[in-house]
């Protein structure tokens, strides 16, 4: 198989959602003298919504936030304030990321394998392009970044779980949807990929480890590295046999099994390297 490998960004390439994103939002409020800080558990609950600007909008109906901040009654004024906060948060976050981030296991290796084997490579994220680009430049080798097609939430009308960002990625890559293997970490991302007719591998983080990823072909603790700590399959409809890490060939096999599942309604199929 020669296809396309598409990564989400936050939570997949790097896992900094509840740390640096949250810290950047909180810095904006400290600078403005707003007596509000997102704690880790509070922020984690907002992650059911894709996009930082969209998460900020949730505060409009939050009685705890309204108790400490005079929320504008005019919706247009509130939207302008949200947009301003989000721009500043993006700048702060970008500066944080430039100081250094660590890739999740297997990302660099699989990206390099994909390029070497002639696969198309993309990142499709609900995030702002400035933030996504900063992460990719900090986390990945320049030769990988040069091969990436980057699609962000700014390019589509609706964010995940809408499949628009993945449909656009396939279009830009010049591949059929069924030729794409997506790596995601959230239910919203899984639904977006599945809605686009793509095979989805989920590598959850601590925040969403126990979510129901029922549309994923495979749910695994990470993509893994040869010689590194073994990763564990914890769910999915097309389980492969036990692996300590996933190769590009494994992803190709998984896409084949997932296509069979969707075509024939198979409950489980598996094989390959033990």
From TrEMBL:
Q: Which organism is it from?
A: Pseudonocardia alni
Q: Which PANTHER family does this chain map to?
A: CBBY-LIKE PROTEIN, XYLULOSE-1,5-BISPHOSPHATE (XUBP) PHOSPHATASE
Protein name in the entry: HAD superfamily hydrolase (TIGR01509 family)
UniProt-recorded Gene Ontology molecular function terms: hydrolase activity
Q: Which InterPro entries match?
A: CbbY-like, HAD-like_sf, HAD-SF_hydro_IA, HAD_sf, PGP-like_dom2
**Keywords attached to this entry:** Hydrolase
Question: Where, by residue number, does the polypeptide cross the bilayer?
Answer: none
Q: Where would one find the signal peptide in this protein?
A: none
Question: Does this entry carry the keyword Hydrolase?
Answer: yes
In the UniProt record, does the keyword Ligase occur? no
């Amino acid at each position: 198989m020669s296809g396309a490998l598409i990564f989400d960004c936050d939570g997949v390439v790097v896992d900094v959602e509840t740390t640096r994103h949250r810290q950047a939002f909180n810095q904006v409020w400290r600078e403005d003298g707003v007596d509000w800080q997102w704690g880790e558990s509070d922020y984690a609950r907002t992650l059911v919504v894709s996009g930082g600007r969209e998460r900020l909008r949730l505060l409009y109906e939050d009685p705890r936030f309204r108790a400490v901040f005079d929320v504008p009654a005019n919706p247009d004024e509130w939207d302008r304030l949200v947009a301003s906060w989000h721009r500043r948060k993006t700048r702060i976050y970008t500066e944080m990321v430039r100081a250094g981030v660590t890739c999740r296991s297997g990302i660099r290796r699989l990206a390099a394998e994909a390029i070497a084997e002639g696969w198309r490579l993309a990142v499709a994220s609900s995030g702002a392009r400035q933030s996504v680009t900063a992460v990719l430049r900090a986390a990945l080798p320049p030769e990988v970044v040069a091969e990436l097609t980057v699609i962000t939430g700014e390019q589509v009308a609706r964010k995940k779980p809408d499949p628009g960002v993945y449909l656009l990625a396939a279009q830009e890559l010049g591949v059929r949807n069924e030729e794409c293997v997506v790596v995601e970490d959230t239910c919203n991302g899984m639904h977006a990929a599945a809605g686009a007719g793509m095979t989805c591998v989920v590598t959850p983080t601590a925040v969403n480890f126990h979510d129901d990823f029922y549309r994923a072909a495979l749910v695994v603790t990470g993509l893994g590295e040869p010689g590194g700590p073994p990763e564990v399959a914890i769910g999915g409809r097309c389980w492969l046999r036990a692996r300590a890490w996933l190769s590009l060939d494994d992803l190709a096999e998984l896409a084949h099994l997932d296509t069979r599942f969707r075509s024939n309604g198979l409950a489980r199929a598996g094989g390959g390297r033990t």
